[in-house]
């Protein structure tokens, strides 16, 4: 494991171009999707640009870029017009309206499976309850409906319930989602399911305990000879660990068993998400509830055969490596396919020009989204054609792909 304290330095040699592409796509989609949801929440599905300016910080739109210019870059999704007083308004195109209706249908179809995942997260938690505002951070990652706090949480009273707990400081009471019914058949990890077909009786009588399962690992091609280095990975893979669904109160923080169980918890959480990816700062909110290390980023970076951490921009993302083949998710649920439909309608007018390098991508890497039409000739990106993102500097990618095999070996010596 590297000795640098900066995440960017420690992960520089482990950068994976394909997953960086996924990160950039997500950033662009999240901005567009958020604005679509805001417009949809209005009674007539229209909103003045002046009022919509309140969302500037949410979508990280830096000044002096105009929100109206940003919206005009996606004419297949947004309609802009002025009223008689000269006030600029924005609504959605019929195609965008249809897409949001389709999203509602897909979320409803996904609801029962999602209820299972939320229940299993509660089962993994130490107190069998988690604050609702913490779960809200995962809303888009899991496919929760827009109004899940008001309606969806009451839809499955046999699984969980909403409870209010008085704040210790005398402030506003906290709302928790609390487990109602423990299900033995759901206390089986996704990794266990792959290795064994459980019978009905086995499912009903299953009790979580010690596991010794190997985690799928995926390294770049220059790691083909990795397993010749001291057998350190084999020792890690064979080491027993406590199931994420077992009581972890007795584990000593920093111990080998504690860390491997934490890897299992992260693996399970990422398996529940739509795209097998999460924003890392959302995970840190669950340190106490899920009994995971304070220095979670160090754990994720250490096990970069299992996870990949993208540090593009201000927010880090963690991926489950096994779920991707290049930049593509191997198994796509209907909600992921729906997202791709929206992405195909996010377009930019003008000439196309290849992006120079990763270094030009930051949390305002979508600079071309924010330029006015007069800037179009200088730099225009067309996300409808994937070649835009594939045109990154080959020299940069070559440098990023370099990895030290001995670094992996040393990372697992104390794993």
From TrEMBL:
<keyword id="KW-0175">Coiled coil</keyword>
<dbReference type="Pfam" id="PF11955">
    <property type="entry name" value="PORR"/>
</dbReference>
<protein>
    <recommendedName>
        <fullName>PORR domain-containing protein</fullName>
    </recommendedName>
</protein>
<dbReference type="InterPro" id="IPR021099">
    <property type="entry name" value="PORR_domain"/>
</dbReference>
<dbReference type="InterPro" id="IPR045040">
    <property type="entry name" value="PORR_fam"/>
</dbReference>
<feature type="domain" description="PORR">
    <location>
        <begin position="14"/>
        <end position="348"/>
    </location>
</feature>
<feature type="coiled-coil region">
    <location>
        <begin position="93"/>
        <end position="120"/>
    </location>
</feature>
<dbReference type="GO" id="GO:0003723">
    <property type="term" value="F:RNA binding"/>
</dbReference>
